[in-house]
Amino acid sequence: MIEAEKLTKYYDKVAAIEDVSFTVDKGEIVGFLGPNGAGKTTTMRILTGFLPPSSGTARVAGHDILTDSLQVRRRIGYLPEAVPLYTDMKVAAYLEFVAEVKGVERRERRRSIGQIMEKCRIVDVQRVLIGSLSRGYRQRVGIAQALLKDPEVLILDEPTVGLDPQQIIEIRQLIKELSGQSTIILSTHILPEVSMVCQRVIIINDGHIIAVDTPENLTARLQSSAKLLLTVDGPVGQVEEALTRLPGVLRIEPKDEGKAGDAAVSFIVESERSRDLRREVSRLIVDKGWGLLELRPADMTLEEIFIRLVTEEHQEVRG
Ligand SMILES: Nc1ncnc2c1ncn2[C@@H]1O[C@H](COP(=O)(O)OP(=O)(O)OP(=O)(O)O)[C@@H](O)[C@H]1O
Ligand SMILES: [Mg+2]
Prior knowledge:
The structure is a single chain. By secondary structure, the chain is of the alpha/beta class. It folds into 2 domains: about 1-220, Rossmann fold (3-Layer(aba) Sandwich), CATH 3.40.50; about 225-300, Alpha-Beta Plaits, CATH 3.30.70. The protein contains 11 helices and 14 strands. The protein has helices at about 40-45, 70-75, 90-100, 105-120, 135-145, 165-180, 190-195, 215-220, 235-245, 280-285, 300-319, and strands at about 1-10, 15-25, 30-35, 55-60, 65, 75-80, 155, 185-190, 200-205, 210-215, 225-235, 250-255, 265-270, 290-295. The relative contact order is 0.13. Bound molecules: adenosine-5'-triphosphate and magnesium ion (MG). Adenosine-5'-triphosphate binds near residues 11, 16 and 38. Adenosine-5'-triphosphate binds next to helix 1.
């Protein structure tokens, strides 16, 4: 459904993205994951036909973004990074306007707008001026306008940014519900978001794609060790010593999360990837008479994933 071929974009003499190639199948939800300035927005703007690449090209729903950009735009719903909403329009009137521009048939409009407002949970604010909506609600209106005319492809640039936790859950759910009907690319900084919503992840760093895989494979590939987060009520030194001596433990890293006056101490306990030491660790703590307050797998943070990917890449280049 989407094929990007060696997309490169220069701003002045600086490459924002270089040789970016990937494909997205019909009905797939793919996440673009990368730090600030990685090139996510640039790539998305090129795919929507709003920004011409310096070189390379892409096909979206069978149409070339360069030679057939009108056809591409007709098939895409786009939530830009900064949603350009008309602040002096009311929500429903704005959606009516976008529907007209997008060429939704007049007799279809009312029904379609009603459905979309319900999906995005903005029915209650339909007569409110966009300018007086909270940021999260504006983001919802942005998503609503992207959904008009049932686009084959949805491109969502950080759809959950600025939303409160409840709204984040709802928007993720909404995106999941849309899968199957639309092909979706979304960008995010949040690793768990990708695992929750996307079937595949494209990791982009410094204008280059550094990994494409399923969230599960990626985490497994990168996690050379298994990490547990452990919080114990007990004497720090003794706890640390006992843990170090536990067979299978590779490394202990104290984590300073306890409040002042709190007897609880937290550690990251690292073991080989194939070993789950939760039973051994909990038995040890209980046998010693300490309090086991928390024990759970510690997920890799986005920072750790990047560091590891970038190091892997450098090693490949060198060796
Ligand atoms: N209009 C522009 N003029 C000059 N440089 C730009 C322009 N837009 C983006 N860039 C540069 O291109 C690079 C990629 O930017 P881009 O906005 O695509 O990153 P991003 O991955 O979307 O980042 P963020 O997570 O902060 O949104 C950055 O170095 C940025 O400074
Ligand atoms: Mg961006």
